[in-house]
């Protein structure tokens, strides 16, 4: 029996990457843009029911809910060749259509007002599932709708569906470019609290690393949003291949993430994929054996998160899951794992086993492939949060530095407290040689006038 998964797409970024994801799934399962199975795909052994269901006229409809507070992106989807693919009852647009103004507080407060309409859609989709396993949330943490409304939905999903898994594909902002959104660090920080407390698994998609990969690996000088979204859709589709093309193991979502998350809070995952190709690029990888693919997945240049782990040798892996696609002999997998352990290509935490799980999956028979073997790595690594070069550290430092700006810019936010504590090494013999430590305690509270909510706050600390 398939374990169904409902996809929730929030805001501009969430709907754009969700649109590319459904295009990829349709191509892999031989489904036309109208939802009709092509003649060459009628006898497939894949499990479409995990992400699709059949309407009365036998065409396939995605288990997707499209949500946005402004109409531009969803209107572009409805004007695309895939307009008839979606269920129009599963699309929600705000009545005023003004959006959240890139403001977390606005998106969160609007979520409280429209929650009944949204959960009418979600409940109807859940009731139509035979064995619902969980939800997949696609969003950005930097804007207003994806961060604010996404945070509110995460809290409510935990209340209404406490036994269902919630996995998110969260897009982090580009660190190499100056954002036009002044309060972007606050949007990110407030969303990270909800991702930490209310999500079961967070797949981190770093715009900085995605742009770097598109430039360095695919040789695209100025990658567009569409090309970046294609990379994201590749990651999303590859991470669900074992659900859609089942084998002996990892046939459901809990089976995928159970080996990667040792404790509930350690659920922020990084991904890597090889070999990468686009329509405009020429394949640069000529040999794709299992060992070559698994070795490339461990290289920082193929990882889609900027952690600076090459500068932090003390950081290590907590767990690794490699999803290998193609016709692979299991003996090759065992030899590759043995070679990786012998050469110590990956270092692991001292308080747990060296966990490298490998899941084998078939490739879609309906898509041409230039490579015999391809692989996706989903990994839990200590540098994703605790490194000074991590995304979390960067966002927190941005919040500190933004205090240099005029107060009027931050009128929608109220900074309650910033305490800076310096522990400087003394010149006494007892403390000589000790490193300097800097700690920031930040409590951020949204403005009550714009939120009209009870008192709640986000508490974070940072140490150098």
UniProtKB/TrEMBL annotation:
SMART domains: Tubulin, Tubulin_C
Annotated Tubulin/FtsZ GTPase domain residues: 48-247
Location relative to the cell: Cytoplasm, Cytoskeleton, Microtubule organizing center
Gene Ontology BP annotations: cytoplasmic microtubule organization; microtubule nucleation
InterPro entries linked to this entry: Gamma_tubulin (IPR002454), Tub_FtsZ_C (IPR008280), Tubulin (IPR000217), Tubulin/FtsZ-like_C (IPR037103), Tubulin/FtsZ_2-layer-sand-dom (IPR018316), Tubulin/FtsZ_GTPase_sf (IPR036525), Tubulin_CS (IPR017975), Tubulin_FtsZ_GTPase (IPR003008)
Pfam families linked: Tubulin, Tubulin_C
GO cellular component, one term: gamma-tubulin complex
Residue ranges constituting the Tubulin/FtsZ 2-layer sandwich domain according to the UniProt record: 249-393
Main location: cytoplasm
A GO molecular function held by the record: GTP binding
Keyword Protease in annotation: no
Alphabetized UniProt keyword annotations: Cytoplasm, Cytoskeleton, GTP-binding, Microtubule, Nucleotide-binding
Functional note: Tubulin is the major constituent of microtubules, protein filaments consisting of alpha- and beta-tubulin heterodimers. Gamma-tubulin is a key component of the gamma-tubulin ring complex (gTuRC) which mediates microtubule nucleation. The gTuRC regulates the minus-end nucleation of alpha-beta tubulin heterodimers that grow into microtubule protafilaments, a critical step in centrosome duplication and spindle formation.
Family classification: Belongs to the tubulin family.
Protein's UniProt name: Tubulin gamma chain
Lineage: Eukaryota, Metazoa, Chordata, Craniata, Vertebrata
